[in-house]
């Protein structure tokens, strides 16, 4: 289904522009309309490609970041540019044809950018749950213990059919914690705060674990960045994807 917020936003912005034939004081051209678009780029990893070994191999991290994530960024920018080009020509069919690509690649970019920050070298103090004292209290209040939360989260991750993501989120409004699974590259866009995400696409583990998905999940607990989780839980992190999340939601 097409993302209504993005469609409505573009129509609200574009139709008045199309009606008067200009962007600001300038005549409409693809170049000056496209110049209004943000350009997304691949974020650098906060650690080296081999820093998560042995839980996640250097080969996986290299391909996952430099090829898979880069492809989402490249394809997102291309789809946004093509959609605006279509709008400036009044081609609403051409514009609509880009919506699924914007939603898929925009979600892929958001999910991976959040995921890299959720990981930490196993030797780092960030990889200890002690780095998330307030979150630990909330996890224990919700699940009884950290171990019980990890057990339920692991079950949810292994229950994902096909490609997708598992998330620990803090619900908007209630502030309660809950586990969420999303298919493909759907992103957490409903106002909830993503605290901890795990990529369950085969490209995240297959080169190292083959069909041993359970071993991948078991080992990823050794490289979780609990400092990041804590900062997201207490609201200390800026949602740099707020605009993108809103247009694909
Ligand atoms: Fe991935």
From TrEMBL:
Domain Manganese/iron superoxide dismutase N-terminal: 39-120
Name listed for the protein in its UniProt record: Superoxide dismutase
EC id: 1.15.1.1
InterPro entries in the record: Fe/Mn_Superoxide_Dismutase, Mn/Fe_SOD, Mn/Fe_SOD_BS, Mn/Fe_SOD_C, Mn/Fe_SOD_N, Mn/Fe_SOD_N_sf, SOD_C_sf
Source species: Phialemonium thermophilum
Record carries keyword Manganese: yes
Family indicated by similarity: Belongs to the iron/manganese superoxide dismutase family.
Cofactor(s) in the UniProt record: Mn(2+)
Domain Manganese/iron superoxide dismutase C-terminal, residue spans: 134-231
Subunit structure as annotated in this protein's UniProt entry: Homotetramer.
Keywords of the record: Manganese, Metal-binding, Mitochondrion, Oxidoreductase, Signal, Transit peptide
Signal sequence residues: 1-21
Cited PANTHER family: SUPEROXIDE DISMUTASE, SUPEROXIDE DISMUTASE 2
Reactions this protein catalyses: 2 superoxide + 2 H(+) = H2O2 + O2
Location in the cell: Mitochondrion matrix
Pfam family, one: Sod_Fe_N
Source organism superkingdom: Eukaryota
Function in brief: Destroys superoxide anion radicals which are normally produced within the cells and which are toxic to biological systems.
The keyword ATP-binding belongs to this UniProt entry's keyword annotation: no
């Amino acid at each position: 289904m097409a993302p209504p917020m993005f469609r409505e936003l573009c129509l609200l912005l574009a139709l008045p522009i199309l009606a008067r034939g200009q962007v600001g004081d300038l005549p409409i051209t693809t170049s000056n309309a496209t110049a209004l678009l943000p350009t997304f780029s691949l974020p650098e990893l906060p650690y080296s490609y081999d820093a998560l070994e042995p839980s996640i191999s250097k080969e996986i991290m290299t391909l996952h970041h430099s090829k898979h994530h880069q492809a989402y960024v490249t394809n997102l920018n291309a789809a946004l540019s093509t959609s605006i080009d279509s709008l400036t020509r009044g081609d609403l069919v051409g514009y609509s044809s880009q919506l699924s690509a914007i939603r898929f690649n925009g979600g892929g970019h958001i999910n991976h950018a959040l995921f890299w920050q959720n990981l930490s070298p196993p030797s780092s103090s960030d990889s200890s749950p002690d780095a998330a004292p307030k979150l630990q209290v909330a996890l224990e209040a919700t699940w009884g213990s950290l171990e019980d939360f990890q057990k339920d989260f692991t079950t949810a991750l292994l229950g994902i059919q096909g490609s997708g993501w598992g998330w620990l989120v803090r619900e908007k409004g209630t502030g309660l914690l809950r586990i969420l699974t999303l298919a493909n590259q759907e992103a957490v866009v409903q106002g909830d705060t993503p605290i901890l995400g795990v990529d369950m696409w085969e490209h995240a583990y297959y080169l190292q674990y083959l069909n041993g998905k359970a071993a991948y999940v078991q080992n990823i607990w050794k490289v979780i960045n609990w400092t990041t989780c804590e900062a997201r839980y207490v609201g200390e992190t800026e949602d740099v994807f707020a605009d993108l999340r809103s247009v694909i939601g």
